[in-house]
Write a structure and sequence with these properties.
Elements lengths: L12 H14 L8 E2 L2 H8 L3 H13 L3 E4 L3 E4 L4 H25 L4 H14 L1
Helix pairs in contact: 1-3, 2-3
Length: about 120
């Protein structure tokens, strides 16, 4: 699992790390039972505070994405996969609402908008 941290992002470090771990779980790069690195080694690898990684792991555990076993480690628990997928869909829906609002204000028809979406989606 590769984590990329941006110092120019508006998101705090812990949020960037947490979001990337969630994405890795969703993409099944991390699967149920996989061990996450220890807090200390992960913090050293990313050159962040151990407190940052501890916060990431605690929040992931509260949200049901990982389980921690004292003295053993932190492991992926894919129980919240449906919730994560739903939250990602909700994010896309919010962005689509903005696009629809903009399109309507510019008198772009639904058909034109759908055609643009098809073209852009296929280019990705």
């Amino acid at each position: 699992m590769k984590i990329v941290i941006s110092n120019t992002s508006d998101l705090p470090l812990y949020q960037q790390i947490k979001d990337q771990i969630k994405d890795a779980i969703l993409r099944e790069e991390l699967t149920q039972g996989d061990a996450l690195p220890s807090i200390r080694s992960f913090a050293n690898d990313l050159k962040v505070s151990v407190l940052t990684i501890r916060r990431v792991y605690e929040e992931l555990e509260k949200e049901g994405f990982v389980t921690s076993q004292v003295g053993i480690g932190t492991f992926v628990s894919a129980g919240n996969l449906d919730l994560l997928r739903d939250s990602k869909r909700r994010l896309v829906e919010e962005k689509m609402q903005d696009i629809i609002h903009t399109a309507k204000s510019l008198s772009i028809t639904k058909e034109e908008l759908m055609e643009m979406m098809d073209i852009l989606y296929e280019e990705e």
